[in-house]
Amino acid sequence: MNENLFAPFIAPTILGLPAAVLIILSPPLLIPTSKYLINNRLITTQQWLIKLTSKQMMTMHNTKGRTWSLMLVSLIIFIATTNLLGLLPHSFTPTTQLSMNLAMAIPLWAGAVIMGFRSKIKNALAHFLPQGTPTPLIPMLVIIETISLLIQPMALAVRLTANITAGHLLMHLIGSATLAMSTINLPSTLIIFTILILLTILEIAVALIQAYVFTLLVSLYLHDNT
Amino acid sequence: MASVVGIFSHSSVSVPVKDKKLLEVKLGELPSWILMRDFSPSGIFGAFQRGYYRYYNKYINVKKGSISGITMVLACYVLFSYSFSYKHLKHERLRKYH
């Protein structure tokens, strides 16, 4: 059982690595674009949702930060649809692969930090020392703040990977436990309820996307426009 | 299917018919009809585009589209993923001897 527990997380291949690319490219097919003002129901609901989230996300930025709005809205849409599609049975979720999350986290974080360092170097360096620290503590605190800055992209990537992977794994385990219990039949209903509740809570994987983009936003804001 | 030039998301884009549709081809001339098809990359891309817009205009781009327009796509996605992972899954059947 231990070998096939992790089998859904292996990247699917057709004689190579291409199937993972196909699966990563498939969420945009569910989000059509249109050139009309009044559209069908699908496009209308999606546009309404996008307007809601983008307004919520972008109010706390000034003009320079709002140039990133396309990037951030497409990021949240991509991660949300990918995670939600991964909740379907037997499907492969690309965000369970650490390589993909690192590929998303490191360029965005590096872009924000480098932008902050280029435009306002004094403000960017001032982040390394909080206000009001006693003088003997300053060297240690600078080291600590540097480490906390450098660990941000790793934290972003590993957070997303670990949460989605742990959720999928837990659902697998509880599902197989339910199947095993169904012959014995004693507390099987209780375990089925646990699955249901877990699935509902796991649909707060969408909240994880919010967590991803919000932490990214906070980092961008602080580094950039303060 | 007709062969077209450019994007053809709706029927008012002009479409010159080059060859017969599949349902009009007789069974004996099926191999020659298949060989006549355009298998270049742009031809295959055009076939995918035609299929996409055919589904889209029938089920989603209507005035009162229902949820079945998307759930059919998701069901096909589930079946597709199942066929991919069948290799792993066939060891998990409830049999005495695997």
TrEMBL record, chain A:
Q: How does it sit in the membrane?
A: Multi-pass membrane protein
Q: Where in the cell is it found?
A: Mitochondrion inner membrane
- Ranges that cross the membrane: 6-31, 67-86, 98-117, 137-158, 164-184, 191-222
Q: Which UniProt keywords apply?
A: ATP synthesis, CF(0), Hydrogen ion transport, Ion transport, Membrane, Mitochondrion, Mitochondrion inner membrane, Transmembrane, Transmembrane helix, Transport
Q: Give the chief site where it resides.
A: mitochondrion
Q: Which GO terms describe its biological process?
A: proton motive force-driven ATP synthesis
Q: Which GO terms describe its cellular component?
A: mitochondrial inner membrane; proton-transporting ATP synthase complex
What is the top-level taxon of the source organism?
Eukaryota
- The answer, when asked if Transport is one of the entry's keywords, is yes
Query: What does the record note on quaternary structure?
Result: Component of the ATP synthase complex composed at least of ATP5F1A/subunit alpha, ATP5F1B/subunit beta, ATP5MC1/subunit c (homooctomer), MT-ATP6/subunit a, MT-ATP8/subunit 8, ATP5ME/subunit e, ATP5MF/subunit f, ATP5MG/subunit g, ATP5MK/subunit k, ATP5MJ/subunit j, ATP5F1C/subunit gamma, ATP5F1D/subunit delta, ATP5F1E/subunit epsilon, ATP5PF/subunit F6, ATP5PB/subunit b, ATP5PD/subunit d, ATP5PO/subunit OSCP.
User: Which protein is depicted?
Assistant: ATP synthase subunit a
Q: Which organism is it from?
A: Homo sapiens (Human)
Automatic annotation (TrEMBL), chain B:
Subcellular compartments: Mitochondrion inner membrane
The residues forming a coiled coil are: none
**This protein's GO CC annotations:** mitochondrial inner membrane; mitochondrion; nuclear membrane; proton-transporting ATP synthase complex
Q: Which UniProt keywords apply?
A: Acetylation, ATP synthesis, CF(0), Hydrogen ion transport, Ion transport, Membrane, Mitochondrion, Mitochondrion inner membrane, Phosphoprotein, Transmembrane, Transmembrane helix, Transport
Judging by the UniProt lineage, the source's domain of life is Eukaryota
Q: How does it sit in the membrane?
A: Single-pass membrane protein
* One GO term (biological process): proton transmembrane transport
Segments traversing the membrane: 66-86
Describe the task this protein carries out: Subunit f, of the mitochondrial membrane ATP synthase complex (F(1)F(0) ATP synthase or Complex V) that produces ATP from ADP in the presence of a proton gradient across the membrane which is generated by electron transport complexes of the respiratory chain. ATP synthase complex consist of a soluble F(1) head domain - the catalytic core - and a membrane F(1) domain - the membrane proton channel. These two domains are linked by a central stalk rotating inside the F(1) region and a stationary peripheral stalk.
Q: Which family does it belong to?
A: Belongs to the ATPase F chain family.
Q: Give the record's subunit note.
A: Component of the ATP synthase complex composed at least of ATP5F1A/subunit alpha, ATP5F1B/subunit beta, ATP5MC1/subunit c (homooctomer), MT-ATP6/subunit a, MT-ATP8/subunit 8, ATP5ME/subunit e, ATP5MF/subunit f, ATP5MG/subunit g, ATP5MK/subunit k, ATP5MJ/subunit j, ATP5F1C/subunit gamma, ATP5F1D/subunit delta, ATP5F1E/subunit epsilon, ATP5PF/subunit F6, ATP5PB/subunit b, ATP5PD/subunit d, ATP5PO/subunit OSCP.
Q: What is this protein called?
A: ATP synthase F(0) complex subunit f, mitochondrial
Q: Which organism is it from?
A: Homo sapiens
Q: Which taxonomic lineage is given here? A: Eukaryota, Metazoa, Chordata, Craniata, Vertebrata
